[in-house]
Write a structure and sequence with these properties.
By secondary structure, the chain is mostly helical. It is built from 19 helices and 2 strands. It folds into 2 domains: 2-234, no CATH class; 238-430, no CATH class. The chain has a two-stranded antiparallel sheet with strand order 1-2. α14 (307-317) packs antiparallel against α15 and α17 runs antiparallel to α19 (403-427). The mean pLDDT is 88.
């Protein structure tokens, strides 16, 4: 019975990992990651290096360094071109990834998906003039649409439009055949003309019908009934800890839990991070504790399961030569948050003794990080540093230079060591007998 349940669980996890829509979301955001990191560091440089606001902690406010303030517009412009265009980039990349998964290697697809997304969103906004008069501005896309606030809607538009487009192209029923004398690139454009038109018309027509019936736009409905509830669950400490626990459970069975569930949680946590980054750039209060860099700092630091704590516990308490030998080899990887040598080398996978603390340690780490942030000792995360950034330095950068965050990250690794220690001691009784 247990074996049957385990096989069923593994089958479900494998299908989830290979499901084409989730894979497209995961791969799309992975491709977008360099732009997110660039935008994050532009925010950091703009505020920590170039900010000349009196009383602000910045290098530019040091004697003789005020010239750095002249560089601030450059970093602000780069930030606008990256962080404030995340929804546009996500729409393009996710549609491309889904198209690749459906066998369509077509550059018309991402443009069609973007057209569908823009056809759904509002292209008007209101502004207040100096006289106090409220004016309506038409034919514009606000950052509500282009930035991370529009991520979820852009993701849905990309998936739906790509699905329709690829099915129409694959059917061949709307294909326009051109004479062989016509250049191939021109013939290709005509072959996808009707699929592109039908896709855009269907999405735009649905948007019009939906607004007519419900008196709200499709993006407004998605945000109200899907994005906001999901965000409230995943950015609460209970929902978030459950999410991290599930990723670690998958790891126990040899499945890359982070990558498997990334397509589900990444849009929500990334949107929360973008809100933090925007507030930090504007000098406002940081709204969210849980976000993408929070997970990097307290959920997967030194690798899933906070295995840096396991390394410490092994060096202090393990009498097993095989464990100690593997741990020595794993230290350089652990410094850069890579833990496969431990996960598959000890192994942790399918190992009941080490599997228990592997699931408990991240929960303890995240709860502690959340508590320290709540009381103000640990700064909230405003920069998305590369996931391979060493512990301590990672939290320092992600929090915009907050020392308390760096200290908190080091403490959570030590707490993980405390969690692992009894189980490492228990594993000593399983020592591999030496041959005489």
């Amino acid at each position: 019975m247990k074996e049957k349940m385990m096989n069923g669980f593994l089958l479900f996890a494998t299908k989830l990992q290979t499901q084409r829509h989730i894979s497209a979301i995961k791969d799309g955001f992975t491709t977008l990651l360099p732009i997110i990191i660039v935008g994050s560091f532009c925010t950091l440089f703009s505020n920590i290096v170039c900010n000349t606001t009196p009383g602000y902690v910045s290098i530019a406010n040091l004697p003789g360094m005020s010239w750095l303030g002249a560089l601030k517009p450059m970093f602000d412009a780069a930030n606008w071109g990256t962080m404030n265009m995340l929804a546009i980039g996500a729409c393009i990349l996710i549609s491309m990834e889904l198209g690749e998964g459906m066998g369509q290697h077509d550059w018309s697809l991402p443009i069609t998906a973007l057209a569908c997304y823009i056809a759904l969103v509002k292209t008007t906004t209101t502004v207040t003039a100096q006289s106090g008069e409220v004016l309506t501005v038409s034919n514009v896309l606000t950052n509500e649409v282009t930035s991370a606030r529009g991520l979820f809607v852009a993701m849905v538009a990309a998936l739906v439009s790509a699905e329709i487009y690829c099915r129409l192209v694959s059917s061949g029923k709307l294909d326009i055949k051109m004479p062989e004398s016509v250049p191939s690139n021109v013939a290709k454009s005509f072959s996808v003309l009707f699929p592109s038109c039908v896709t855009v018309f269907l999405v735009a027509g649905f948007g019009l019908l939906f607004t007519t019936v419900t008196k709200m736009t499709v993006p407004e409905a998605i945000i109200k009934f899907i994005q906001t509830p999901l965000s409230n669950v995943m950015t609460s400490w209970v929902g978030y800890v459950v999410l991290v626990f599930m990723t670690d459970v998958l790891w126990i069975f040899g499945i890359h839990g982070t990558q498997t569930l990334k397509g589900i949680y990444d849009p929500i946590l990334l949107a929360a991070f973008a809100e933090n980054e925007a507030a930090y750039a504007a000098g406002e209060a940081i709204p969210n504790i849980i976000s993408t860099p929070f997970m990097s700092c307290f959920g997967t630091v030194t690798g899933a399961g906070i295995t840096g704590g396991l390394l410490i516990a092994i060096f202090l308490f393990s009498k097993r030569e095989d464990y100690r030998a593997i741990a020595k080899l794993a230290v350089p990887c652990g410094i850069f948050n890579i833990n496969e040598p431990l996960t598959f080398g000890l192994p942790i996978v399918m190992n009941p003794i080490l599997a228990i603390p592997f699931m408990i340690a991240p929960a303890v780490s995240n709860i502690f990080g959340y508590f320290m942030t709540t009381i103000g000792f640990c700064g909230r995360m405003v920069v998305n540093a590369p996931w391979t950034t060493p512990p301590g330095l990672m939290a320092f950068l992600c929090s915009g230079g907050n020392v308390g965050a760096a200290i908190t990250q080091i403490i959570v690794i030590l707490l993980a060591a405390v969690v692992y220690a009894p189980f490492v001691i228990a594993s000593n009784s399983q020592a591999v007998p030496t041959e005489e």
